[in-house]
């Protein structure tokens, strides 16, 4: 047990890609969805706090910690919309899992790829519990970095078999269509948001502009649809016209955070919204009937990253896709940190 | 500039020890003290927030973020007093520096050794500005992991030439004395705190018990002394009798945090204390005369870790004591994260 507690397994971007390919992207998202469901069902026991944000003119850097009393996890994530023009990622992330018992880190990982997987898996869990059971067609508004993951997670977990694509930039739609060409999904490229949403049972909006946008207007949204609005995820960034919100049953992760960051920032602070985890525990009902419009206003919450890191730790038990990091000082005598440095000098002198 | 932004230099415990030995421990602390002084002088421009703590029955895990508008830094640190009995470190830590402009991490490092260096360097800066200029003798109450660093930092930066040691456990005193045997300091091992403090110009208390202790009582503290009280650093953990506080001019790092964690948690919330950084900028006076008792109630603040990480980043410019971590996803097209994973599959198939 004590052996090598000072060594922390680290999953690089390359190892994360190889791990995901080894298990299959769709399988990984289905597995992560199971961890998400487990953690949603025990939501009240988590230590919850809104993310700790450091805002600047160009973007934001955030720390998202949480704990279930056994493990502690946090994610570092930035959001810099202007990065894309410079050929950089808008969002990069890494995360850590630690033992509450000892405070020692037990896993460090890239989380850019992992966040893409957990975000799509979260939308799929919301869709599974809120969309009409016969949903087959997904409209994807915004065909950027998250889009393919959404399509495959909803295929694998919710039985979606057709995807209608729209992006303000046709090149993004072409990229998404090419990436999904051999997925088994029927792909329909659309020239307008209206065209994309036509006949869709589920809509996911995942656009990237940091501003108040109206990706969907009220007349576009018909009865019975389920919407995952996941691109509106920070103050000043929304995707849906307010009138859609007023016609929908709204589900969120953590109201305290979503009221600041989600599409519901357009509504009054006491506008009634439901918490997704309560649908999973059965404390509240999900969709009322086939005519209702359900909206998952997803902004991403620390517990989802925690679930993803728990999945990763377990996945590594049968994989070699990590490297060992000498991250924690481990003197023979905990009170003799100085002696540890001295003995390193002696070792260097001897060698 | 854009090249290899996805690769983050990482300083392991072994590399940190080798870097410190390469430059000399005392030199490193003197250099870090310069970075600390720079950052103390521009204290108001930092983004300051009390640490984000996750408490459990066994200890605490904390995130300590800060930013100067150019760089962003945070430290992960735990405090688990019961760890020592299990042969583990009470405190372990790692830290990160990132670019505010892009949100990309630029340096990841172990911070158990680095925190020991910056804590001692901070005490030395406080001592330099608050102790009597002719101070030569240091009493070290608590001879654990921080003690040798305190002795050497105060020797190098403040001209201390003799150290009087006391610990409730004589084995700790023997360990500290042995580690300092070839330091050039005169070492006096003492059987009581009273004996240790006799004739001392400066006292550093750095004990580890998580409880209200009275390491120093009022009658032990004579006129003209400077005290660094650095072991009382969390709620419920103090070292000095309240009457000593009432006779002292008290200097702190960040009052909002120190009133919760420091020895001054024993005083009323509005008891007047001074901020150390203002002594460095000249906004307030330090020691009034040779009879005053000055007290630095140090609990450790995020800006000090930031200074230490800045020092490390600059030190690495002339050292190879780091390794490259593939930590940030870097697709050719930022919107094509999925394609990056696909292309990895093609590479694996080709190889």
Automatic annotation (TrEMBL), chains A, B:
<dbReference type="InterPro" id="IPR036291">
    <property type="entry name" value="NAD(P)-bd_dom_sf"/>
</dbReference>
<protein>
    <submittedName>
        <fullName>Ornithine cyclodeaminase</fullName>
    </submittedName>
</protein>
<dbReference type="Pfam" id="PF02423">
    <property type="entry name" value="OCD_Mu_crystall"/>
</dbReference>
<dbReference type="InterPro" id="IPR003462">
    <property type="entry name" value="ODC_Mu_crystall"/>
</dbReference>
<dbReference type="InterPro" id="IPR023401">
    <property type="entry name" value="ODC_N"/>
</dbReference>
